Amino acid sequence: MTDEVVASESKNFAFIGKRLYPPSVLTAYTILINVPLGLILYGMNIVARGNRLYGKIMIGSGVLGGIWLLAFILSPHRGRTNMFLLIGLICGLSIYQSEAGPYQRAIAAGALRARWWPPLLFSIGIMTAIYLYEWFIVRQE
């Protein structure tokens, strides 16, 4: 076998069994739920494709953004939140454009499509916990 054939075969095996979220799912979560969740899922895709440092940076950015968003939601002086939809739209479209090509190449190399519903269940759980906290704790004061 030539070196090119061996190199191309080893690339195909690198993605076999790896689960990646499709760009459309990343975009939907980023726009409809929040930007931090989109960044975390995007980072998980990057880590699964082998770029661990950049993926962990994206996951860390999503976690820090989620902490900031949670603090903003729980603060008594929230202010206006009209810009969150616009920010989510811009970030979602950027993630889609960045992820579309690498996702298709990884799927062609043997990666699998990840299930879309576990992040949704996680998000519903977090939103329910925030709602219950505000209902029972904040309204009692």
Spell out the blueprint of helices and strands.
Layout: H1 3-15, E1 19-20, H2 23-32, H3 35-48, H4 52-74, H5 83-108, E2 112-113, H6 117-138
Parallel strand pairs: 1-2
Helix pairs in contact: 2-3, 2-5, 3-4, 3-5
Entry summary:
With 141 residues, the chain is mainly alpha-helical. It has helices spanning 3-15, 23-32, 35-48, 52-74, 83-108, 117-138; strands at 19-20, 112-113. The protein is 77% helix and 3% strand.
Structural class of the secondary elements? mainly alpha
Shape: elongated
Oligomerization status of the protein chains:
single chain
Strand content: under 5%
Number of strands: 2
Give the rounded overall mean pLDDT: 88
- Helical run tally: 6
State the distance separating the first and last CA atoms: 74 Å
The ordered H/E elements are: HEHHHHEH
Unreliable parts = 1-10
Provide the spatial order of strands within the biggest beta sheet.
Answer: 1-2
Main sheet properties: 2 strands, parallel
Helix content: over 70%
Radius of gyration: 18 Å
Description:
This protein is an all-alpha fold and 141 residues long. Helix content is 77%, strand content 3%. It contains six helices and two strands; from the N terminus they run αβααααβα. It has helices at residues 3-15, 23-32, 35-48, 52-74, 83-108, 117-138, and strands at residues 19-20, 112-113. It has a two-stranded parallel sheet with strand order 1-2. Helix 3 packs antiparallel against helix 4 (52-74) and helix 3 packs parallel to helix 5 (83-108). The longest helix has 26 residues, at 83-108. The N and C termini lie far apart (74 Å). Mean pLDDT is 88; it is low at 1-10.
